[in-house]
Amino acid sequence: MSDAAPVSRQSQSRRATIASFIGTAVEWYDFYIYGTASALVFGTLFFPESDSGAGTLAAFATFWVGFLARPLGGIVFGHLGDRVGRKNVLVVTLILMGSATTLIGVLPTYESIGYAAPLLLVLLRAVQGLAVGGEWGGAVLMATENAEEKRRGLAGMWVQQGSPAGSILASLVFLAVGRLPDSAFMEWGWRVPFLLSVVLVVIGLVIRLKVHESAEFRRARETAPAVKVPLVELFRTSWPLVALGVGASAMGISAAYFTNTFVLSWATTDLDVPRQTMLDILLIVAVLQFLWQPLAALLAGRTGTVRLMAAALGANIVVAVPMFLLITTRDSTLIGIGLALGVVTGATYYALLAGFLAQAFPVRVRYTGISVAYQLCSTIIGGSTPLVAQWLLIQGGGSHWGVVAYYVVLLLLTLACVLALARRTAHDRENAAAPSAPVRNR
Mind telling me which residue stretches traverse the membrane in this protein (predicted)? Predict the structure, then answer.
């Protein structure tokens, strides 16, 4: 009987991690297919009265709408998650995301219903944003709070695996429909990835419903009542953590939208790289990220999380210029190498971000804390990335150097905030431990 409890906890931890990974992969699949469609078809189908560049800007603006809604989702679902628990909230976010994505798949275009088409697209995109706003933080906590202390970084990494997994799924589906003739792809082929979301959501729900509530959350509720208004408590006691969390998340959110949205659009329009070639490259890069992130989490166990995150961000700064120069060659192999340089360095930091942020906030407001920080970053920085990059490209007369500068500035901001948040977290832990320390003055 003595082994029953450890085995039960280990089983629960594994189930929570798997459920968090699969649910997050489904959510990111839905987000990535929207980003891909906004780069390839939405400008033409929903904003046909604009020229090519303006239509792309309009499509990227609808893409940003989802990010504008994400902080609201983080606040609403974070409030519920901190008061009533993580599990049920995660079921609701998955259903919301799947419903919105499926409806986009049957949405009439501008040619059929005029201005109502882009308005409905924006509305459904906002629902997607609400769902993702509550999903990521809850998935991180469900995985990390059920894991042993020494394995929380690894558990958080598996939540981060949802991003490349969703990208792989999105790329595979778009590769399949991308082989259709252009007329068929533009007429109905682009809808298929959105409609397939129904299948993925059902799978995610079946697994997620079998998971128990977070062990750490249950223990916290046994020792203290739930915070009445987590958002108020968060900003009253921990607002510096929120501000630093926003900055520390900057490149973790922006990187994917540089590659999967802006670069995809830039390469297939201005650089005349074939659509199918770019989709092939993005699939390979996503697989590379998926394989690399577990190695990064294991390496962090030897070097230390903060040290490895800082080194990875520094390396990403070094490879930024070569990455963009390789993309401008228009050669598929060199484009792949350039994106791989950015992905390997960026994914090393990204794999560790979830566990790093989760441990920065106190458990009583943790769901609200990491959700608000991450989703505010998504709105202010992440979602605007393709829009800002495209604007810089247009303002530069097609030159990519303004985009490169923006990319590097985001990396520098991320690095500074990661180091500052690490110092702040260590300081808070020392203060919390001080009253019980055996030696007070030395």
Answer: 31-48, 54-77, 89-107, 113-133, 154-176, 188-209, 238-258, 278-301, 308-328, 334-358, 370-392, 404-422
Whether 39 shows a pLDDT value over 80: the answer reads no
Q: Are 368 and 82 in contact (CB under 8 A)?
A: yes
Question: By C-alpha distance, which of 209, 184, 343 is closest to 263?
Answer: 343
Q: What is the CA 311 to chain-centroid distance, rounded?
A: 21
Query: What pLDDT score was predicted for residue 440?
Result: 43
Position 162 pLDDT exceeds 60: yes
- Encoding tokens for residue 251? 């490149």
pLDDT at 393: 92
d(CA 192, CA 167): 16
Residue 168, CA distances (Å) to 145, 163, 362 in order: 27, 9, 34
Q: Which amino acid is at 203?
A: I
pLDDT digits (tens, 9 = 90+) for 124-145: 988 988 888 888 888 888 888 7
Q: What is the distance of C-alpha 4 from the center of its chain?
A: 36
SS (H, E, C) the chain: CCCHHHHHHHHHHHHHHHHHHHHHHHHHHHHHHHHHHHHHCHHHHHCCCCCHHHHHHHHHHHHHHHHHHHHHHHHHHHHHHHHHCCHHHHHHHHHHHHHHHHHHHCCCCHHHHCCHHHHHHHHHHHHHHHHHHHHHHHHHHHHHCCCCHHHHHHHHHHHHCHHHHHHHHHHHHHHHHHCCCHHHHHHCHHHHHHHCHHHHHHHHHHHHCCCCCCHHHHHHHHHCCCCCCHHHHHHHHCHHHHHHHHHHCHHHHHHHHHHHHHHHHHHHHCCCCCHHHHHHHHHHHHHHHHHHHHHHHHHHHHHCHHHHHHHHHHHHHHHHHHHHHHHHCCCHHHHHHHHHHHHHHHHHHHHHHHHHHHCCCCHHHHHHHHHHHHHHHHHHHHCCHHHHHHHHHHHCCCCCHHHHHHHHHHHHHHHHHHHHHHHHHHHHHHHHHHHHCCCCCC
Whether 24 has a pLDDT exceeding 60, the answer reads yes
Record the pTM: 0.76
CATH of 8-211+228-427, one of 1.10.600.10, 1.20.1280.290, 1.20.1250.20, 3.90.180.10: 1.20.1250.20
Could you tell me the CA-to-CA distances from 16 to 142, 229, 298, 351 in Å, in that order? 6, 27, 20, 18
The answer to whether 215 and 15 are in contact (CB under 8 A) is no
Spatial contact of 135 and 204, defined as CB atoms under 8 Å apart: no
- Using only C-alpha atoms, the chain has a radius of gyration, in whole angstroms, of 21
Q: Is the pLDDT of residue 224 over 80?
A: no
